[in-house]
User: Fold Transporter from Desulfotomaculum copahuensis.
Amino acid sequence: MNAVNYCFWQKQGDKMKQLGFFLGFCVLLLFLPAACLADNATGQPVSLSQAVQMAQQNNINLIMAQNTNQQAQKTYNYTSDNFSGFTPVTTGPSNPYVPNAGDVQSQINLMQSNYGWQESSKNLSYLKDATTFQTMYDYFAVQDALEAESVAEKSQQQAQVAYNNTLALHAQGMATDAQLEAAKAALDGANSGLANAKNDIDNAYTALNTLLGLDPHARPVLNTQVAYQKDDFFKAINQDAAVNRALANSPAVFQAQSNVSITNQTRYYNQVPDVGPLQYLQAQNAYNQAVQQVTQQTISAFLAIDNAEKGYAAAQKALTAAEMAYKNAQVNYRVGMATKQDLLTAQLNQEQAGIKCAQALHGIFDARGQLALLMGVGAILPANLS
Assistant:
């Protein structure tokens, strides 16, 4: 009896060891993202392509879409393997060959499984591109927020210095109450702007970290190098070609078109009494609406690229002017023709122009990504961030 008890508890102990090993392995998996984040905190930047990969691995909808696509393919293969074709039924010299009801339903099942597989494949591809596009958007949002905070800090420091100087002059009777109140209002506005900028950073990081599967409060280091490159792909394609490609790629259009085909097939063989001309017309109308919607979206995205590039060109000109103004302010300050406040203001204006230029550049990539998403060519990443 003691030997039996010993063996029993020995087996239980082995099971507990196995369970402990399994739980420990699970905990290790949970902390892997944190470990990666710790490496990032040492200064190794996260490239945009790395962020996209992390987002795709963390996207539960994408994982489910992959499983759905695999299941749809299995369903089609099974239906195709079990489809033997039509068995004609002789009904008379005027219509000698009419498929029986079972063959018609088998044909419809084959069509449905085929369409289902193709539709799930399109959905999977579209979701991958959408994840890439959203990652790019959130990635740039963090960069823009960090740059905006830097300018907000300098603006707050400048407002603080101006208020302190005005306060000292007011104590000596050399500044009016109105001037002091104006300086205090400017300082309050700068403090509020800095607080908003910090809040924008928190929100931007939270959105990106949620997408990447990281802790919402994490601060991964991003690759801040970005340069504008004219993409030959978008220059070579015209609006009509973009629309046609988007229509061919759209899951919604494909689904609507599939419904038209299946409804028409059922109506043609007239094996299902409750499916008639009305259902076919409804399916055709839904298809036309899907085509119209995708067409409008594509045209808007196509034009958005041109507008974004024009906005970037204007931002570049404004930045050049701000840089020249700052250089002039430096020269004037050295010769006593400009105050320290004038110099700081010119510097701040230059940095703000730089932020607007970066935001305009990000807008180009966002616009390109949106059109690429519709066309099914994958979101176009900036070369030096990929």
